C-alpha cells in the first residue's frame, strides 16, 4: 500500500477546512439527496462526501457506507485531494497503491473507485466526492463529466452551509434587542456600532482564510440638492433604495453599512485590492446605471467611493486607519468630479 502524501499547502488547507465549519456537523439533507442521485446514476454501492482532517477522513455525507470516519493514512480520498484530476481505480486488487488497503481486503471491500477533489472558496482541496463499488468497472466520459457537475453542486452546498453557520453565530452571539441597536432603522443596513461589533469576527475570519480586509467608503453625490428638490422624505427614499442596491451588488457575507447621513460603506474580505476595486466599481454602476424611483418620478443618483485594503493584523479594534485611508480616497473621488472609485 502507498500512503497518500501530505499536500504542500496542508496548513492553509486545514485552516480553510476549519473555517467552513463542516466537520462534526449533523447530516445535510441536500448533500445526502445528491449522493443518493449519484448512487443511482453510477449504479454503485457507495457514494461519499469526504473531508480530509489532520489524521482522519470524516464523511460529511455517505450513502451505502456505515462508518462515519476512518484513519486518513489508509484513505483513498487522501490521494484524491492531491490533484485536480479525477482519481480512478478500475480494480483496486491490481493497483499497487491500494491492493492491500484495509478498505479493499476488508469492509467495504472496495474494488472500483472514482473520486474528485472538493474545494473551499479559497481554492484549497478540503475533501472529495467519490463513488465506489465492490466490483471492478470502467469509467465513461459521461461519468467523468458527471463527477465534475456533482463537484460544483457540493461546493455550492458547502458555501450555503457556511453562510447558515455564520447566520446562526450571529443569532447566538447577539440577542434581538442588541441586533436592533446595530441596525440602521431607515436602510436596515448595519450602523456604525454594528460595524464596530462585527469587525473583530470578520478580521479573525480574514486571518483564518488568509484574506485581506477591504473597506469601501461611499458618499452619495450632491445629496443636499436631492433633499432640497425632493424634500427630506424624498431623500430618505433615496437612502432606502441605496441600501437595497448595495446589498444586491455585494456578496452575502460582506457587510453593508450606513455610517451616518448619506455615508455608506462596505466591509469585505478580499484576496487583494484589485478584487475590492472591482466590487466598488460594481457598486458605483449599481447606482448610476438606472435612475432611482421617487414619487415625483425618476431621479439620477451617483455615488463616490474610496477604497482601502489592509492585512488583518493591521486593522486593530476599530479599523480606524483603514477607514481613514478609504475616506481619503473618497475625498479625492469628490475632488476629481464624483461618480468614481479612488484608492485611498
Ligand atoms: N433625507 C435625509 N437627508 C439627510 C440624512 N442625513 C443627512 N442628510 C442630509 O445629507 C446632506 C449632506 O450634504 P453634504 O454633506 O453637504 O454633501 P452633498 O450635498 O452630498 O455633496 P457632496 O458630498 O459634496 O457630493 C445634508 O443636506 C443633510 O441634511 C437623512 O437621514 N435623511
From TrEMBL:
Q: Report the subcellular localization.
A: Cell inner membrane
- Cofactor(s) required, per the database record: Mg(2+)
Known EC number: 2.7.7.65
GGDEF domain ranges (all copies): 211-344
Where on the tree of life does the source sit, at the highest rank? Bacteria
Q: Which reaction does it catalyse?
A: 2 GTP = 3',3'-c-di-GMP + 2 diphosphate
Pfam families according to UniProt: GGDEF
Q: Name one GO cellular component term.
A: plasma membrane
Write out the GO MF terms. Answer: diguanylate cyclase activity
NCBIfam families xref list: GGDEF
From the Swiss-Prot or TrEMBL record, give the protein name: diguanylate cyclase
Q: To which species is this protein native?
A: Halopseudomonas pachastrellae
Amino acid at each position: 500500500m502507498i500512503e497518500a502524501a501530505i499536500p504542500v499547502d496542508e496548513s492553509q488547507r486545514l485552516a480553510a477546512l476549519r473555517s467552513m465549519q463542516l466537520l462534526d456537523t449533523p447530516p445535510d439533507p441536500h448533500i445526502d439527496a445528491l449522493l443518493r442521485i449519484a448512487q443511482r446514476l453510477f449504479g454503485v454501492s457507495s457514494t461519499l462526501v469526504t473531508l480530509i482532517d489532520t489524521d482522519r477522513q470524516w464523511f460529511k455525507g455517505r450513502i451505502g457506507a456505515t462508518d462515519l470516519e476512518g484513519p486518513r493514512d489508509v484513505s483513498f480520498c487522501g490521494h484524491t485531494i492531491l490533484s485536480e484530476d479525477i482519481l480512478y481505480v478500475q480494480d483496486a486488487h491490481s493497483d499497487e497503491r491500494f491492493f492491500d488497503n484495509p478498505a479493499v481486503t476488508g469492509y467495504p471491500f472496495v474494488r472500483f473507485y472514482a473520486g474528485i477533489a472538493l474545494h473551499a472558496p479559497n481554492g484549497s482541496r478540503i475533501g472529495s466526492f467519490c463513488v465506489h463499488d465492490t466490483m471492478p468497472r470502467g469509467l465513461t466520459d459521461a461519468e467523468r463529466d458527471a463527477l465534475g457537475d456533482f463537484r460544483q453542486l457540493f461546493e455550492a452546498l458547502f458555501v450555503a452551509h457556511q453562510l447558515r453557520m455564520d447566520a446562526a453565530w450571529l443569532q447566538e452571539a447577539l440577542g434581538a434587542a442588541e441586533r436592533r441597536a446595530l441596525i440602521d432603522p431607515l436602510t436596515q443596513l448595519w450602523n456604525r456600532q454594528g460595524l464596530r461589533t462585527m469587525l473583530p469576527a470578520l478580521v479573525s475570519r480574514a486571518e483564518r482564510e488568509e484574506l485581506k480586509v477591504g473597506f469601501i467608503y461611499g458618499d452619495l453625490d450632491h445629496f443636499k440638492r436631492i433633499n432640497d428638490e425632493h424634500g427630506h422624505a424624498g431623500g430618505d427614499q433615496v437612502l432606502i433604495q441605496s441600501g437595497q442596491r448595495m446589498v444586491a451588488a455585494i456578496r452575502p457575507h460582506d457587510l453593508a453599512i450606513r455610517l451616518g447621513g448619506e455615508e455608506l460603506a462596505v466591509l469585505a474580505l478580499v484576496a487583494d485590492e484589485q478584487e475590492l476595486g472591482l466590487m466598488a466599481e460594481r457598486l458605483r454602476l449599481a447606482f448610476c446605471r438606472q435612475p432611482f424611483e421617487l414619487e415625483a418620478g425618476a431621479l439620477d443618483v451617483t455615488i463616490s467611493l474610496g477604497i482601502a485594503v489592509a492585512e488583518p493584523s493591521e486593522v486593530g479594534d476599530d479599523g480606524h486607519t483603514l477607514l481613514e485611508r478609504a475616506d481619503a480616497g473618497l475625498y479625492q473621488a469628490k475632488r476629481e468630479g464624483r461618480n468614481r472609485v479612488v484608492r485611498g
